[in-house]
Design brief:
Blueprint: H1 3-20, H2 24-42, H3 44-52, H4 56-75, H5 89-113, H6 119-144, H7 149-174, H8 179-203, H9 220-244, H10 246-259, H11 261-274, H12 279-304, H13 307-330
Helix pairs in contact: 1-2, 4-5, 5-6, 5-9, 6-7, 6-12, 7-8, 7-11, 7-13, 8-12, 8-13, 9-10, 9-11, 10-11, 10-12, 11-12, 12-13
């Protein structure tokens, strides 16, 4: 332990000791903080090793991420503003923080695992960081090495499937009451996709590891873009529901899903929680958005990858989408 670390540890020990004499809450806080500090100090070598693998650009991106969470979010007004057509700026930014946090955590995990990860981990982490980026990466790999189309199809499908449980996590945070309804179609689509992807993996001629080249996903401009998309989708969904009823919500869900599933998922969950739309309409709209975004992955596989990749991804994700459509119709 260096001189600075010893100095900080001594100061923290003194501060925590003082907290224990202040009150019961202070004692509890001192115990919690002391436990966290102990864990961090015991893992100091691992933490330093991880920090050494982070380059300057990634450090700047991480600082920006901390900035939007700890500086910008608390300063935004927590009420609807007329200038924003009644939208709550803090709530919108909170959704930006939540979505970018999922990607950021997945990125940290991918860095902790190492440069070379198994295909399963690549697909899962790639799906949380960006399923679209993972699809593009896998498609480009098949153009370079066509014989890897089965493995690349596996990673593409897994990355696309991760989108469904990710949406369920978002719903659980925003509107837990809606979760049981949406869990049926999205859960069935997830299970189906995982099973079929497992078959592809088993039939693949090789199990070599590949690098997903996942970079730090946080960029300030995309974060601001998502916030604008989320606000726009929220306004359009409200207007579409009041003007055209459920059909307007469904059209909005499909169009929004072409670019991003998170925005329409959070929007419809919020509207259902506020009573602006029914849980059935919200559930159907979320599934439509997921279907729309999955179709984009299929298109990218055809446009940027080989014919074999496009065919395999179409078959697998086609089965997944068929399951979701059947369940929605039956429900």
């Amino acid at each position: 332990m260096g001189p600075l670390s010893k100095f900080l540890s001594a100061d923290l020990t003194l501060l925590l000791g003082a907290l224990t004499t202040h009150s019961e809450q202070g004692t509890l806080l001192a115990i919690i903080v002391g436990g966290v500090i102990t864990i961090l100090l015991s893992a100091k070598g691992t933490i330093h090793g991880f920090a050494d693998r982070i380059n300057e650009a990634e450090r700047r991106a991480s600082i920006k991420f901390i900035l939007i969470v700890l500086v910008i979010l608390p300063t935004l007004p927590d009420r609807g503003l007329d200038i924003l057509l009644g939208l709550n700026p803090r709530f919108i930014w909170l959704m930006v923080v939540f979505v970018t946090s999922l990607s950021f955590v997945a990125y940290v995990l991918s860095r902790a695992v190492g440069a070379k990860r198994s295909l399963a981990v690549t697909g899962i982490l790639g799906g949380f960081v960006s399923s679209t980026a993972t699809t593009v990466s896998m498609a480009e790999r098949t153009t370079e090495t066509p014989t890897l189309y089965q493995i690349c199809a596996f990673s593409t499908v897994i990355a696309s499937i991760v989108m469904f449980p990710r949406a369920l996590v978002e719903i659980a945070v925003v509107n837990p009451a809606l979760l049981p309804r949406v869990a049926v179609p999205l859960g069935a689509m997830t299970v189906t996709g995982v099973l079929v992807a497992g078959v592809i993996y088993w039939l693949s001629p090789t199990e070599r590891e590949m690098e997903a080249n996942i970079k730090n996903p946080f960029r300030l401009r995309p974060a601001l873009f998502f916030g604008a998309v989320f606000a726009l989708v929220l306004l359009v969904s409200k207007s579409a529901n009041s003007w055209f009823g459920a059909s307007g919500v469904y059209v909005t869900a499909f169009v929004s899903g072409l670019a991003d599933v998170d925005a329409i998922t959070l929007t419809l969950s919020t509207l259902a929680a506020d009573g602006a739309i029914s849980p059935d309409v919200a559930t159907t709209g979320i599934v439509i958005g997921a279907i729309s975004n999955t179709l984009v992955k299929v298109g990218l596989a055809w446009l940027l990858g080989t014919r074999q990749l496009g065919q395999l991804v179409t078959v697998v994700l086609g089965v997944v989408l068929a399951i979701g459509i059947v369940i929605i119709v039956l429900l």
